[in-house]
Design a protein that fits this description.
Mean pLDDT: 78
Distance between the termini: 42 Å
Shape: rod-shaped
Number of strands: 0
Low-confidence stretches: none
Structural class: mainly alpha
Order of helices and strands: HHHH
Amino acid sequence: MRTTSTLTELQRLEDALKSGDICEAEFTTRRQAIKEAVEDAVALDEDVPADTASPHEFPCAARMACLIVALLILATLIGAWLLRDLLLALTLSVTGLAALTVRAFKRLGE
């Protein structure tokens, strides 16, 4: 049985159950027969909700990278203002944020 025809058949079966054309026991029997007709069928847990992430939402690693870049710029500007030396401020901020980045990615991997 092809995937699309199987899905179509399951949809028709669910529609028949909702409309009251078949009873719950008949629905279960027919559904089981359809599942058995499909080779290597994998049972899905129907209680688990589908992934609801928005396609426009940044993944965690991308958000973390953006945050790190923003912190690097902020730390450099504040350091340059306090120390009155841009090169020293950049060196200190890059070193500190590199340590934070390593720590964050280690924590992300746990």
